[in-house]
Amino acid sequence: MNPRLTRLLVPLLLTAAGAAGCSDDPGKTGTPAPGPDLTAVTDTARDHQAAALEPDWTRACEMRTKRLRRGSVTDCADRNAPPPATTESAVPPTGGPVYDDGSTALPQPSRTPGPDRADTGPVRTEGDPVAVPAQGDHPAGYGVLLSYTVTWPDKPASTSHRAVRIVREGDAWRVDQYETVHPGDMAHGDPVRDALTGRR
């Protein structure tokens, strides 16, 4: 082979070999950079719903955007806190008999009415997150479909579905919107986007 031609070909061959050796590096082959970590998106939606059902409103409010919290985490938790638990107390009866010595009947136990609490099953995600466009005050983000069972005392269990909008705020994924998905909407082609964009 012509010595001059050899000197020209060797650098070209070495360059080609080096490029082939780097073919596993996505940054050097033109492979698109990986998208957002959708595992973190689904985890945020599921953990927020689980905290709200527990209920642990401080934890749930920590995972919300500033817009959805409408104030501090403490303010948000206080607004969403459940009513006081049912208690029994002794109260004197009203309009009861008054005895000759001026005393009244002994206090009677009184039960403060309150709603029974339902048992809820584990929160699960259904399908993959879907991109959802901005809608009103809600920025664009990802929609996640959640499901969990609800069982009231002496009633059969039912399944609830909820669509949750997850958006990026700072360096974290946070909940910016959540909507109930009714059983009739589940039969539609896109219940998550429909619920989060008001198209149902």
Overview of the molecule:
- It is a single chain.
- This protein is an alpha+beta fold.
- The chain has a domain at 38-81 and 117-197: Nuclear Transport Factor 2, Chain: A, CATH 3.10.450.50.
- Helices cover 30% and strands 26% of the residues.
- The protein contains 6 helices and 7 strands, in the order H-H-H-H-H-E-E-E-E-E-E-E-H.
- The strands form 2 sheets. Strands 3, 4, 5, 6 and 7 form a 5-stranded antiparallel β-sheet that branches. The chain has a two-stranded antiparallel sheet with strand order 1-2.
- Strand 5 (141-151) and strand 6 form a beta hairpin.
- The longest helix is centred in the N-terminal third of the chain and has 19 residues, at 3-21.
- It is globular, with a radius of gyration of 30 Å.
- The protein starts with a helix and ends with a helix.
Shape: globular
Q: What is the distance, rounded to the nearest whole angstrom, between the alpha carbons of the first and last residues? A: 75 Å
Q: Helix coverage percent of residues?
A: 25-40%
CATH third-level topology of the domain at 38-81 and 117-197: Nuclear Transport Factor 2, Chain: A
Bin the strand percentage. Answer: 25-35%
